[in-house]
Design brief:
This protein is of the alpha/beta class. About 45% of the residues lie in helices and about 15% in strands. It contains 13 helices and 14 strands. The longest helix is centred in the N-terminal third of the chain and has 21 residues. The structure holds nicotinamide-adenine-dinucleotide.
């Protein structure tokens, strides 16, 4: 997470939101408050050039309101890149609800939140995220049609994790092709950090293709399940970055690619589902490059979840969502080859492609 340098909380609110380092040409930032339900939310619309801004609603007990502002600005911008690089007709947006998702959720709070989303007239489309679930979106839907990520019995796509894991697998295979000249992971040693919704699906695909899977999770029961089901090798939490493996797949936390961990890494490729893997984009993108480690941009290869909710907007079809996620393979190759030919980092190459797509559409619209 970026440092909060410029947002100061005062009795009258925030100072410096527009000059905050995470504020980067955002189109609109909406503060939502409702006394009766206790709702405190912030909706950030970063860019709608390619289409309505889509991004989930995160519910988190932020230590300060400034931290919530920082998070929503950073996350919404990331969604712009994710949609653009995935070739979706969507812009980037995100929302945060300030509160404890375990104790402060009520149907009324989500209905009220839905009214705020509705007031934006479709410029922002919401969905589930950390701290919210498809069942919460059912209450949001009572107040707005601009919501996706609904349960399957309501025509939604349900759990997006299998699509996300498939996209990660495609990105990993494309990286393998670029690095070793062959896209199979058969016989490759893959360290999967986090055996949650995405990690478990990824481990299944890896083991079906004959990879040697290493797994680590703070939840030892989930590790045991992977050991028993797929013959995965258990790795202690603290030993993940020191493993002699071919591929490291971060599927738990963001920002694991920091200076200390990169120095420890012994792999050739990093390809995983976690968001914001680089602690600092340019510094750690460059460190990986200098160490000869190929990093598959997270916001591209984990876009399966976004692809899944996008499919829902058009009448959900799992096969077409999977078909769209399969394209992550080609886009990953395009980025890796561009980075190589221009002697730049993969993050820089990916961002350039996304920015060029947005600029081209903006020029047509102007
Ligand atoms: P999840 O909560 O189901 O799984 C995360 C797992 O990581 C849990 O099992 C947790 O115990 C484990 N974990 C937490 N801290 C850990 C640590 N220090 N070391 C090892 N394991 C640890 O989440 P998920 O849906 O599987 O998502 C995984 C990651 O991918 C997250 O960063 C998420 O933001 C990102 N992501 C998910 C999707 C999706 O469709 N679910 C889409 C895009 C990105």
């Amino acid at each position: 997470m970026l440092e909060i340098k410029d947002v100061k909380e005062t009795k009258s609110g925030f100072e410096g939101v527009l000059s905050h380092p995470s504020f980067q040409d955002h189109e609109q930032v909406v503060f939502c408050y409702d006394k009766a339900t206790g709702l405190k939310a912030i909706i950030a619309i970063h860019d709608t050039t390619l289409g309505p801004a889509l991004g989930g609603t995160r519910m988190w007990n932020y230590a300060t309101e400034a931290e919530a502002v920082n998070d929503v600005l950073r996350l919404s911008r990331g969604m712009t890149y994710k949609a653009a690089i995935s070739g979706l007709k969507l812009g980037g947006g995100k929302a945060v609800i300030i509160g404890d998702s375990k104790s402060q959720k009520t149907p009324e709070l989500f209905r009220k939140y839905g009214q705020f989303v509705e007031s934006l007239g479709g410029r922002y489309i919401t969905a589930e995220d950390v701290g919210t679930s498809t069942s919460d979106m059912v209450f949001v839907r009572e107040s707005t049609k601009h919501v996706t990520g609904l349960p399957e019995n309501l025509g939604g796509g349900g759990d997006p994790s299998p699509v996300t894991a498939f996209g990660v697998f495609m990105g990993m295979k494309a990286s393998a092709l670029e690095f070793w000249g062959n896209d199979t992971v058969k016989g490759k040693r893959v360290m999967v950090q986090g055996a949650g919704h995405v990690g478990q699906n990824l481990i299944r695909q890896l083991s079906e293709e004959g990879a040697i899977v290493y797994v680590s999770d703070i939840n030892q029961d989930q590790v045991t399940a992977m050991v028993n089901q797929y013959g995965a090798i258990r790795v202690e939490i603290g030993a993940v970055y020191d493993q002699e493996v071919d591929i490291y797949a971060p599927c738990a936390l963001g920002a694991t690619l920091n200076t200390e961990n990169i120095q420890r890494l012994q792999c050739s490729i990093v390809a995983g589902a976690a968001n914001n893997q680089l602690a600092e984009e340019s510094l750690h993108g460059q460190m990986l490059k200098e160490k000869g480690i190929l990093w598959a941009p997270d916001f591209l290869i984990n876009a399966g979840g976004l692809i899944n909710v996008y499919s829902e907007l058009q009448g959900y079809d799992r096969d077409s969502a999977m078909g769209q996620a399969r394209k992550i393979y080609d886009t990953t190759l395009e980025i890796l080859r561009k980075a190589k030919s221009e002697n730049t980092t993969t993050i820089a190459a990916a961002k350039t492609i996304a920015e060029d797509r947005i600029a081209a559409v903006r020029a047509v619209k102007a």
